[in-house]
Amino acid sequence: MTQLADIKNLDDIKLLVDTFYTKVREDELIGPVFNEKIGNQWPSHLERMYRFWQTILLEEHTYSGSPFPPHKHLPVAKEHFNRWMEIFTETINNLFKGALAEEAKLRAQNMAEMFFYKIEYFRNGGRNFFES
């Protein structure tokens, strides 16, 4: 049995992103949403995700932009975010172990929650669910 190591470099980020999105693309629940939105732009999406996670986890500032706007009008609900998180966590746990691996899961969870609430906010005409 191979001992898992932590995320250390861009090659590890690429392994994480490629493995994760291979699973996402094939998933019955979230695959259709991603495949419809991204279409034939997967190579550029993956490159953007490499830079995003490289910036977040390795503090090598290669990503610029705002990650939320492309997600604003996606036809997703809480179960889509839950499934995204399940796949992400499973991918990390199968590939890595260590402080940055744990940081990746925490950052992903925070992002999933924030995106869900922001999408709901826009769907409700600028009102959150706590308002009557």
From TrEMBL:
The keyword DNA-binding does not apply. GO terms for molecular function: heme binding; metal ion binding; oxygen binding. Coiled coil: none annotated. This is Group III truncated hemoglobin. Keywords: Heme, Iron, Metal-binding, Transport. The keyword Calcium does not apply. It comes from Flavobacterium sufflavum. It holds the Pfam family Bac_globin. Heme binds at residue 45.
